[in-house]
């Protein structure tokens, strides 16, 4: 036993982390060189003062209970705790331990190690603080956008009403003037654009609140079938030849309503931006690589210029204004996919069509 303990202590003193052992009654049996140097004491001093003296008061009760339970149940122990160093400050350690028994089944010691994780904990706390701050900023921005769009509705409605009142009080000769007609037309267009911008701002806030769903295992095939059924009137009216080849597609971890929005936006865009020069076609397919499940939506529609592809996911950006839309659908699709640690690619050619590939993390 003495030879075994000697070999253990030589190995433990060479370790770049804390190694310790407790007697069956919970008192300290051993602490290696790394731990003693951190604490600034000798082994004899530390045995005399007890390991309880260096554990943070907020952690002590939990540590005692968990070590006792682990000893009684012959289970491993794993816990993060704070220990007081010789410089008078506490540092975080990840402590792991397990009971060690004699061959007759009697408890010999509770042996474990401690790894300094202070830098990791500080980074986690900083990240949590930053996330909390960003959350407040996002809420403030959402509230600002909602309030601004709400408060601007009344003034723009007043401007529109005043313009109509002015027009009603102008003589027919003045109203017939080409200049007056051009100016009033420009004013009305400006009012309509202002109203549309307000509506879009409100829609963005609503979409961001709606699309923060919790990730669950989602059947992609089922979602695609449901979206196709929802869009069937549009498919029939447009004469689109829809081909779906996603048999055997595995379930993915994603928000169910977000996945529906992704498929809905990409499929409806493939239908809306069809070319009048050929029979419209849309193909939905899937593939799998080492890291991602890839959902592809390909059409033979109008397409866009290669140099404009990078702007496709920009908020309010639209390249075909003859079709009704808000210009925020693809922006939200990209946001939802990237928030789930995925990404989206697009290839497009004018007069040939567009292909979207959505990469979902496996």
State the separation between the terminal residues, measured CA to CA.
50 Å
State the order of secondary-structure elements, H for helix, E for strand: HEEHHHEEEHHHEHHEEHEEHEE
The overall pLDDT, averaged over residues, is 84
Spans where pLDDT lies below 50 across 5 or more residues: none
Total count of strands? 12
Shape: elongated
> Quick one: biggest sheet?
5 strands, antiparallel
**Gyration radius, in Å:** 33 Å
Report the portion of residues in β strands. 15-25%
Spatial strand sequence of the major β-sheet: 2-1-5-4-3
How helical, in percent, are the residues?
40-55%
Output the number of helix runs: 11
Structural class: alpha+beta
Q: How would you describe what is shown here?
A:
With about 350 residues, the protein is of the alpha+beta class. It is built from eleven helices and twelve strands. The protein has a five-stranded antiparallel β-sheet, sandwiched between helices. A five-stranded mixed β-sheet has the order 7-9-10-12-11, with helices on one face. A hairpin with a 5-residue loop joins β3 and β4. The longest helix has about 50 residues. The radius of gyration is 33 Å and the shape is elongated.
């Amino acid at each position: 036993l003495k030879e075994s303990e000697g070999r253990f202590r030589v190995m433990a003193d060479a370790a770049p982390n804390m190694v310790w052992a407790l007697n069956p009654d919970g008192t300290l049996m051993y602490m290696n060189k790394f731990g003693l140097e951190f604490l600034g004491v000798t082994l004899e001093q530390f045995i005399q003062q007890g390991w309880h003296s260096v554990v943070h008061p907020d952690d002590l009760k939990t540590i005692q209970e968990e070590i006792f339970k682990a000893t009684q149940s012959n289970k491993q122990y794993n816990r993060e705790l704070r220990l007081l160093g010789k410089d008078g400050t506490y540092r975080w350690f990840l402590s792991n331990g397990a009971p060690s028994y004699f061959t007759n089944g009697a408890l010999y010691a509770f042996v474990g190690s401690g790894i300094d994780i202070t830098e990791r904990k500080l980074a986690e706390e900083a990240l949590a603080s930053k996330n909390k701050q960003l959350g407040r900023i996002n809420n403030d921005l959402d509230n600002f956008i909602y309030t601004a769009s709400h408060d601007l509705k009344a003034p723009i409605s007043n401007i529109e009403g005043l313009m109509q009142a002015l027009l009603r009080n102008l003589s027919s000769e003045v109203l017939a003037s080409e200049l007056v007609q051009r100016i009033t037309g420009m004013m009305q267009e400006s009012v309509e654009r202002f109203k549309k911008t307000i509506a879009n701002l409100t829609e963005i806030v609503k979409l961001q609140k709606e699309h923060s769903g919790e990730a669950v295992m989602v059947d992609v095939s089922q979602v695609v079938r449901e979206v196709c059924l929802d869009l069937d009137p549009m498919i029939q009216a447009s004469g689109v030849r829809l081909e779906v080849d996603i048999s055997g597609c595995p379930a993915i971890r994603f928000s169910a309503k977000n996945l529906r929005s992704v498929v809905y936006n990409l499929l409806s865009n493939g239908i809306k931006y069809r070319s009048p020069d050929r029979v419209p076609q849309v193909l939905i397919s899937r593939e799998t690589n080492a890291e991602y499940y890839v959902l592809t939506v390909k059409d033979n529609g109008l397409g866009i210029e290669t140099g404009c592809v990078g702007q496709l996911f920009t908020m309010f950006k639209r390249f075909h204004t003859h079709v009704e839309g808000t210009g925020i659908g693809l922006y939200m699709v990209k946001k939802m996919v990237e928030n789930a640690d995925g990404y989206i690619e697009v290839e497009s050619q004018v007069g040939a069509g567009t292909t979207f590939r959505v990469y979902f993390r496996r």
